[in-house]
Design goal:
alpha+beta; 8-stranded mixed barrel; 5-stranded antiparallel β-sheet; 34 helices; 31 strands
């Protein structure tokens, strides 16, 4: 055993050998040999020598043992110091370390590992394995993979990144040792990942910036001159992509002469003392030669060593440079900002100082915009206004969104109504940085809207209340008189001679006559309700003892209109025929009273023009007559007595010759076998009331589509759809089937509707209009302005076209309000991206006004009357030569 320890180099065997040698040298050899004396006794001297030698040997051995013990203690303390040093070093690493033996038992786990995963030493136990500590982490929510996935991914070159619940990212790497054990390191890479993402974001941002720089930008290595980057402008200039450029040198990309010039310029930049070189030289780009202005910069690394060459150039063949382009861009933006039709102010949030204001803002700031820069609201406005402005600004900043409000502002032009919008611009950190304020002067717009709201309840020509307003007034009168013995009369007054005036002098003079008549009716009514119910029919309401008061008013109306009208130097005469009904004897609701007054008017006109008729029950004969006309109309539809007339629609230009015909409106005509030509104003209402309009409308639509499909020129054709067609039957299916049957392209068909389509059942009407538009046909709002809710309908449905009612057009040039209303409707339509067409255009002045205001299309007698399509054969592209019924102005 001792021999084995020796061979093993133990300290104790070495000491024993030393003691043995020492004893041999101290004690004489003869001390161990028995004396040969005669008595056979040992020599006493020898015994003392041996005793003393033994004591010396024992003392020496004790010293040797003490020395060995001391050496062992020193070695143990040294080992402990080494272990403490290693443990301290491992515990102070910035990454966690776990070491296991071949059986995966944990041999060491440093403090950093426990700190990373929120563990403590008390969580560990003896003979704990690597799998145990992984399960412990999994229970704490600090591991989301299986053990096998952990070892597989952590052992890979990239390691395994674990996202902890608190947002930290830990990179784990696993290494297997030759003895079967393992070492795993765990490093918190949260900051590195954040920096990596920021670096990637910065790189992407810089590439995006460079891609949007209008100059050509590229970079190449200094060693071999190969490109490592090229922006979009570079690719556009040379005509090949950046992927094609990267990795190639100039000789691989460009013509020999161009490559030589490029290389020479590169060398000059590298040899320049300041590392920059600018020059202009010519290059070949395909078959053309271009002059470029180039600057090259040697980019150095942190050791001030040349790393790559950055080059920026632009095409100056057409004497354009980057600085000029930027200057033009700046001037353009300044010009755009200055010409924005609203006041624009940009304010810095941190101190409330104005950074930018356009010219339009000077009216609000009451000073030049240059003088407002750097000031605050408190510097510009009086304390009361400044306090209010600052409070509104702070509310917008707090909301971090858009705040819109309307409020009056004092300007040099007086008190104006402004629509103010405040929008907060956030910085990259999400904090408010700028406040953008726009102030739009909406005074005129609100006045226009007020006029248009007025227009919804008033006649556009005479400015009298329309039928809707008249019925409302009737309802109010009925409510006021209900339950009392009060009476009032409803008068329907028909203007006699208007048709003759229109035929002889034209509709323009006829419209002026209507305006004069309206004024005289108002004067005679002395504050009573006067309304224009239709083209030449007016309605009045008069209270008092009936029928005396009503008859007296009717007599006064006749006398007022008996005097000549002097219009445009012409003497014009007109009369009135009146029908009257009385509340409550002839009806207890507005519709009945108005209908019965109309029946009385019909009887009066049958008797004699200029007479006054009271409603009588026997007047129901009129209803019977209308029934006869209804029967005749039904037969006419079946017997083919109806026909079509087409009126041209043209682009609005300043003369008839310039106004190109773009389409037609189809109109129904009825040639009665006995009565002759029946006016549409007479039979269309009967058809609508009786429901015949559905059958008649189907015939009209089919014939119009069949006719239009045969035209060589693909002009548009417009057809009116009655509200009754939407209420009865499948109008969408009908239109679809007729388009398929006739072969007419859907885009050539325009369906004109009135607001009645939406009044009856708004949701259903809106749904049907959307389905019709889905077929590809165009939808037009007809008679715009004659109703009372057209604006809401325009907001609800994207009409393709708005048709301005003729009553507004005929009054152009005489009534400034009519021009303002027409202008407002055109602006409104264009703002909603809808085309505008005006009907009833009969004079060159009207045409010129509409063209000047940007109206898209016109229709009226000036361009053509409603005629058979044969008379417009040349316009639709047919070969036959027929004289066109077009006026030349």
């Amino acid at each position: 055993m001792a021999e084995k320890n020796w061979h093993a180099g133990s300290t104790i065997p070495i000491a024993v050998q030393a003691v043995a040698c020492l004893a041999g040298s101290v004690v004489p050899a003869h001390a161990f040999v028995p004396s040969a004396g005669p008595a056979g006794e040992f020599d006493p001297n020898l015994i003392w020598e041996a005793l003393i030698g033994g004591i010396v040997v024992c003392a020496f051995l004790a010293a040797i043992a003490l020395w060995i013990h001391s050496a062992l203690r020193r070695a143990k303390r040294s080992q402990l110091r080494r272990n403490a040093f290693i443990s301290s070093a491992m515990n102070n690493l910035n990454q966690g370390v776990v070491m296991t033996d071949a059986q995966r038992r944990i041999m060491f786990c440093n403090d950093r590992y426990l700190d990373i995963y929120g563990l403590s030493r008390s969580d560990l136990w003896p003979n704990m394995t690597g799998n145990d500590i992984l399960e412990l982490r999994r229970q704490r929510g600090a591991l989301g993979v299986t053990d096998d996935e952990f070892y597989e991914k952590a052992a890979s070159s990239n390691g395994l990144i674990t996202e902890l619940p608190d947002g930290r990212a830990i990179l784990a790497k696993y290494f297997v040792l030759p003895n079967g054990g393992s070492v795993a390191t765990h490093l918190d890479v949260s900051e590195q990942r954040k920096l990596s993402r920021q670096l990637a974001s910065t790189k992407q941002f810089l590439e995006m910036v460079l891609d949007n720089v209008p100059a050509c930008v590229a970079a190449k290595t200094i060693e071999d001159g190969r490109y490592i980057f090229a922006n979009s402008a570079h690719a556009r200039f040379w005509g090949f992509s950046r992927d094609f450029v990267v990795g190639k040198d100039a000789r691989e990309l460009f013509a020999a002469a161009s490559a030589a010039r490029i290389e020479a310029t590169d060398r000059a930049a590298l040899e320049a003392a300041d590392g920059q070189y600018r020059n202009q030289f010519e290059v070949e780009r395909g078959a053309e030669r271009r002059m470029v202005d180039s600057i090259r910069i040697v980019v150095r690394n942190e050791r001030n060593e040349p790393e790559f060459l950055l080059l920026v150039f632009e095409d100056i063949t057409d004497h354009r440079s980057l600085s000029q382009e930027l200057e033009r861009t700046k001037k353009f933006l300044e010009l755009v900002v200055d010409n924005i039709p609203v006041a624009l102010i940009v304010e810095q949030v941190k101190d409330g100082r104005y950074l930018l204001a356009n010219r339009s803002a000077e009216a609000i700031l009451n000073r030049k915009r240059e003088d407002a820069t750097g000031l605050t609201a408190a510097d510009i406005f009086n304390p009361k206004e400044a306090k209010l402005i600052i409070a509104r600004d702070e509310a917008a900043i707090k909301k971090r969104g858009m705040i819109t409000e309307e409020h009056p502002i004092s300007t040099k032009d007086g008190l104006r109504l402004f629509l103010t919008r405040r929008a907060t611009v956030l910085s990259d950190t999400g904090e408010p940085q700028y406040l953008i304020k726009t102030h739009e002067d909406v005074t005129d717009r609100r006045q226009t809207e007020s006029r248009m709201a007025h227009m919804a309840y008033h006649d556009g020509l005479t400015d009298l209340p329309n039928r809707a307003a008249f019925l409302q007034a009737l309802t109010q009168m009925i409510e006021a008189c209900e339950g009392t013995d009060e009476e009032f009369a409803v008068l329907c007054v028909d203007l006699d001679g208007l048709k003759e005036v229109n035929d002889v002098f034209g509709h323009a003079l006829g419209d002026k006559l209507l305006v004069e008549v309206a004024q005289r009716l108002q004067d005679a009514a002395r504050g009573g309700v006067v309304a224009r119910l239709s083209g030449d029919e007016f309605g009045l309401i008069i209270d008092g003892k009936q029928p005396t008061a009503g008859l007296a008013l009717a007599q006064q109306l006749g006398e007022a209109l008996a005097h000549e009208f002097h219009i445009d130097g012409r003497a014009v005469r007109a009369g009135v025929t009146t029908g009257m009904s009385i509340f409550p004897h002839n009806g207890r609701d507005g519709a009945s009273l108005l209908a019965n007054a109309g029946a009385a008017l019909f009887r009066a006109k049958q008797k004699s023009r200029g007479t006054i008729s009271l409603y009588q029950p026997e007047m129901d004969q009129q209803i019977r007559d209308r029934r006869v006309l209804h029967q005749d109309l039904s037969k006419a539809i079946k017997n083919g007595e109806l026909s079509l007339a087409f009126q041209p629609q043209a682009v609005a230009r300043h003369s008839v010759a310039e106004s190109e015909i773009i389409g037609f409106e189809a109109l129904a005509r009825w040639q009665h076998p006995v009565r002759g030509q029946v006016s549409p104003a007479e039979f269309i209402p009967i058809a609508e009331e009786s429901g015949l309009i559905v059958e008649m409308g189907e015939w009209i639509l089919r014939e119009v589509c069949r006719e239009a499909a045969s035209w060589p020129n693909p002009l548009q054709v417009a057809v009116n759809l009655s509200p009754a067609q939407f209420l009865h039957g499948d109008v969408v299916g009908l239109v679809h089937s007729i388009l398929l049957e006739t072969g007419l392209a859907p885009g050539r068909l325009e369906l004109e509707i009135t607001e009645g389509v939406l009044i009856e059942d708004f949701d259903r009407g809106l749904a049907l209009l959307r389905r019709l538009k889905a077929l590809g046909v165009r939808i037009s709002m007809d008679d715009f302005g004659s109703g009372y809710s057209s604006l809401s309908y325009l907001q609800a449905f994207p009409f393709d076209k708005i048709k301005i009612d003729r009553t507004f057009i005929m009054n152009l040039g005489r009534n400034p309000q009519s021009a303002a209303i027409v202008r407002a409707v055109i602006d409104l339509g264009h703002g909603l991206e809808m085309s505008i067409i005006a009907e009833g255009v009969e004079t060159l002045d009207q045409l010129a006004f509409l063209a000047g205001e940007g109206c898209d299309g016109v229709q009226g007698y000036l361009l053509g009357k409603p005629l058979t399509i044969g008379q417009y054969a040349g316009l639709v592209g047919r070969a036959e030569t027929i004289e066109l019924a077009l006026k030349t102005g």
